[in-house]
Design goal:
transcription, five-stranded mixed beta sheet, WH_DNA-bd_sf, 455 residues, DNA-binding transcription factor activity, transcription cis-regulatory region binding, DUF885 family protein
Length: 455
């Protein structure tokens, strides 16, 4: 057999004829004429060099060799069907791999984002490279990664940097330091204190030195420490003062005092960086879109600042997932994507997922929906991929109610917002509503509503 004479079309025609038993039915299924189907079968038989089909009482039946070819053809076509599904998922960013390089301090920032991203896109793999700024700059120059996270991004014609999060720099001291008892300080009062600083090239050090230069001052006593954790411990032990990222401080358990010094906190930001001359994989683009929409990460950042430990630790699923779904709509209402019909069509597909999650959960646990019915709902009616449907079916086997949290939380938040708009009229401020709503942590929406209305 000359395999070069085979084609996918020949195999498709052959499989249909075997399955349907006659050429007329196969021709109708393939939208071909019967003579075309007959010609394709003749070409295939000549390429193999053997008879493949027998006509028995008006029905086409495979010969011994034809039967083996049928299995091989099904295997080949099935593998490429699987590849087509994979290709759709890869292009949609729901599978694949991302290489990310981050500076040391960013290890306090990126993992919560990746955790939320993984819950939504579990088939996307991530390799995370962590190092000091010089090491990450070297990786950037060598184009070793897809995305980078810097607090002080590199410059140059190949750099594409987008600010994604504030990174305030705080001046800290031991809790028993004399300055910790002051309500107001000038930096001149601290100039002769020992300062613990990061290594040359560190973005935190660069920002602090730039600030010192802008103030026309410098430090007279410094000690270099190449670790945020070691700096926190050293400050807590009374070894000196330091300027450190607020994100680093949030993760520590040391007893430290944030000093109220004029000019502090120093304003800084986190930047998501990529190269203009490098094509981003679809999975990396999906992560960029995920970060751009203020869903889980923004909500959890506010929850971590909530004064109630109980509300912070024991989050309500409907509030957490509902906020993520609500933020998708809020972004478009605020002008993201230029208010185009295409963006709203995309949103309605997103929203359909939340609706179908609720239908699926109730139908399986209350109405006894079968796996076949569930996948028909998800694939044929909700436009989800086979892989998404398979994963959703697994989830609904092991959880109940959780899948309803997306729609129920979203509906409650949206209804409460509209009530507030109607009640406050011209005094309603969307930004203030969001900030106050999120300030209560991950509490149930109904509880937050009562707190905001002071009921």
């Amino acid at each position: 057999m000359n395999i070069l004479h085979l084609s996918f079309r020949l195999l498709q025609v052959y499989v249909q004829v075997v399955r349907l038993g006659n050429m007329s039915a196969a021709a109708r299924a393939l939208h071909l004429t019967q003579p075309t189907v007959s010609l394709q079968l003749k070409k295939l038989s000549e390429a193999v060099g053997e008879q493949l089909l027998d006509n028995r009482q008006g029905r086409m039946v495979t010969t011994h060799i034809g039967d083996e070819l049928y299995r091989a053809a099904c295997d080949v076509l099935g593998r490429f069907d699987d590849f087509n599904v994979f290709l759709q998922e890869a292009r949609g960013g729901s599978c694949g791999h991302i290489n990310i390089a981050i500076v040391t301090t960013a290890k306090y920032v990126l993992p919560p984002i990746l955790g939320a991203f993984y819950r939504q896109f579990p088939q996307v793999g991530v390799t995370l490279n962590v190092g000091n700024r010089a090491h990450i700059l070297e990786r950037f120059d060598k184009q070793e990664d897809d995305l980078y996270l810097f607090s002080h991004p590199p410059s140059g014609p190949h750099v594409l940097a987008t600010r994604i999060l504030k990174n305030p720099l705080l001046l800290i001291a031991p809790v028993d330091h004399w300055a910790a008892k002051r309500k107001h300080l000038n930096f001149a009062d601290l100039r002769h204190e020992r300062f613990l600083i990061r290594e040359p090239g560190s973005a935190t050090r660069m920002m602090f030195e730039s600030w010192l230069s802008s103030q026309g001052t410098d430090l007279s006593n410094t000690m270099q420490i190449e670790s945020n954790e070691a700096i926190r411990l050293s400050v807590a032990s009374g070894l000196g003062l330091s300027v450190i990222s607020a994100h680093t401080l949030e993760q520590g358990r040391e007893k430290l005092s944030i000093l109220p010094v004029d000019g502090f906190p120093i304003e800084s930001n986190w930047y998501l960086v990529t190269r203009k001359d490098r094509r981003l994989p679809h999975a990396a683009m999906q992560l960029v879109r995920f970060i751009a929409i203020p869903g889980h990460y923004v909500q959890l950042q506010h929850a971590n600042k909530s004064p109630s430990v109980i509300k912070t630790l024991f989050g309500n699923g409907a509030m957490v997932e509902g906020w993520a779904v609500y933020s998708e709509r809020m972004m478009l209402e605020s002008g993201y994507g230029g208010n185009t019909p295409e963006m709203w069509l995309m949103y309605y597909k997103w929203n359909l997922r939340a609706v179908c999650n609720t239908i699926l959960d109730y139908s399986v646990h209350v109405l006894g929906m079968s796996e076949a019915q569930a996948k028909d709902l998800l694939i044929n009616q909700a436009f989800q991929t086979q892989a998404e449907a398979d994963g959703k079916w697994q989830r609904v086997q092991f959880t109940s109610v959780q899948l309803t949290s997306y729609f129920s939380g979203y509906s409650e938040i949206l209804a409460f917002r509209e009530e507030q708009k109607k009640r406050l009229g011209a005094k309603f401020n969307l930004k203030q509503f969001h900030e106050e709503f999120l300030s209560y942590g991950s509490a149930p929406v109904g509880m937050i509503k009562r707190l905001m209305l002071k009921q």
